[in-house]
Design goal:
Mean pLDDT: 87
Helix content: 55-70%
Shape: elongated
Structural class: alpha/beta
Distance between the termini: 53 Å
Amino acid sequence: MSRALTVGAVSAVAAIAMSAALSGFRAGQLSLFLIFAVLAVSLDFVWGYTGILSLGQLLPFGIAAYTAAKIATAAPSLSVPALIVAAIVGAAIAAGVGVAMLRRRPTAVVVGLLTLVLSLTLEQIAEQWRDVTGGFNGLTGVPRIGAFGTQLPDAAQDIGISVLALGAITVVGVLVSRPIGAVLVGIRSNERRMEALGYDTVRIKIWAFTVGGAVAGFAGALYVYRTSFVSPQIFGFALATNVVLWTLVGGRGTIVGPVIGALAINFASATLADVWLQYWTLATGVIFVLVVVVMPHGLVPSLQRLFRLPTARRRQPRLVRSDSHAVTTSPSVRRTAIFEAVDVEKNFGFFRLLDGVTLTMDEPELRCLIGPNGAGKSTLLDILGGQQGCQAGTVEVLGHECTGRRPWEFARHGVSRKFQSPQLIGDLSVAANVAIAAWGTRSSPWSLVRSSWNAHIPQPALEILERTGLDELLETPAGELSHGDKQWLEIAMAAAGECRLLLLDEPTAGMTVAESLDAAALLRELHAEHRLPIVIVEHDMAFIRAVADRVTVLARGSVLADGTVAEIESNPDVHAIYSGVDG
């Protein structure tokens, strides 16, 4: 946090110095372009960090601008309250749109088109609603920012707006430097994994959309005070696409990138308009195309790579051994089954993948699910973890009725999941991946803003990190790990939360025979020492012999056999279905 505040303070001092040194016109341009930078940063928070492509960021910006204009016209002395009200209005508008839109889990393209259509629709409404918006001509003569009963002179207002704009940018920078910033990156990169860790991703995305709306609303109020004017074109297509342009060119997901993009493009456009009046729009477009082609990741990230400049490193969490909460529930006090799936059916079109499957675990054990390809093993694991629903049947976990619930609800009841292929946050370090897993079942967005970077990790997860050597790679980006290390990191993440039931889908895929046997030994130790119930989908019989207490065989969507490894290996029905099948 101190770094973001320091950068903000230095930037504010620099803005004051530049405004004082520049002519009145250029100082006014600087303040206006910094307002556009705030708008771009609000989009960057929503899109660059959270992955929500909002082409309608002008909705909170424009509505808040009209709100501030009305307040300023009615009561010129209420400049500061108008800024606060504008931010609240922007947040309310974004929250309403976010709740209506994001709860349906639309694709990125649908979100972009829907928000753009809303913005363009509002432009048409504003043109017709003359009594409120002034119609096509808009509202003019909006008073300047007032202080102590008088309006600020031009130079003072330009400095004040520049400082306020940089303050808003700094606030966003502080937000993304907190644990919530890492969580937002996780949702952007791998929403499926984040839900399985216990995050209500829809709620967090609505929260991020709301915060972005508040920042855009604040920028809208500054815009009105800077221009003394607002018209329906504030919702128009040109400005909507320009905001995306500034963010994309500067480098989304960097905060400083959209600021540089907004300032550079706007100053370049203004300069070209002065010296090349007839072709400045064409020249600006050519420059944009060149930047996108040559620097596809954006100006700031590309220059950092080109000149090998140090990037702004995300803060690394400190993993602390947790003694404050139990990982499992002692069987001596357990009165309900660990899990109970009864008469579960799952259809894909006319194909019935699971046909009345009943599977229970009454005491902590290490159970393997086996069967031919297409038998429904991974699908059953998905249903036990909430990744898929079932057409019929019930699922109860640790005494909680979970049928039809979302994955994050399963996780908060103690179900942890490793997927068939490693599902990690590749952009973040090993330590950050484990920390995010530890925070998942207990954190709300605002608590992640306030909390420290310490992550309390239960003993099983720490043992996995230490035994596999991942504790020596804590600052390594997860995307750069070997396949085997990725497998172990995902298992460590699954064990790092409130894990009371561990579901593993082919944990040894891609490992050598020796590595698979080491994995079996480690899993048996975790199970024996911590009484951790584990369900494993696996094909490797050597691994199964080394690890399993019990084996359940699925075939053609039903339970074919259930028993010890020896009982399953001697079962003639099991031999029959595996004849000619690579097990």
